[in-house]
Amino acid sequence: MAWEWSHTAEAYSNAYSNLYLKDRSWIVECYGEWHALETDDDGELDYNSFDQEAYAVAVEEAAEMSIDVLIDYIWERMSDYATCDNGGFNAYCCPSGCHTVPFDSLDG
Predict the structure, then answer these.
(1) Dihedral sign computed on CA atoms, order 78, 42, 47, 54
(2) Residue 56: predicted pLDDT
(3) Which long-range CB contacts under 8 A does 54-57 form with residues at least 24 apart?
């Protein structure tokens, strides 16, 4: 079961910062996954529509993009869907929630 975000501004800042602690390949996977799902007429993600070709194209495009651009895109999508794990500890960074970052600070 997933929950909707309901955290402090500090928690959101932590989650955003924690994206920068992930390696580039992890970030690229998230980017590709957001591009691989279509939305329905209401703008909701269609989880049965994973398009492997769209994923591959997005991953290829990501090779030429800066990490800042990739993370900003992912953060925007994360924020739009505002989903986290049961308990609210980790923000979903991809549509399915297989990539997450904590809302707690990991910087030290």
Answers:
(1) negative
(2) 96
(3) 56/32
Question: pTM of the full predicted structure?
Answer: 0.90
Identity (one letter) of the amino acid at 16?
A: Y
Instruction: Match 């989880």 to its residue by tokens.
Output: 47
Q: What is the pLDDT of residues 34-90, one digit of tens each?
A: 999 877 777 777 778 889 999 999 999 999 999 999 999 999 999 999 999 998 899
Could you tell me the CA-to-CA distances from 22 to 14, 27, 91, 93, 100 in Å, in that order?
13, 7, 14, 11, 10
Write the single-letter amino acid at 87.
G
Among 82, 29, 37, CA closest to 59: 29
83-84, strands of its sheet edge to edge: 3-4, 83-84, 90-92, 100-102
How far, CA to CA in Å, does 56 sit from each of 18, 29, 38?
25, 10, 15
> Is the per-residue pLDDT at 108 higher than 80?
no
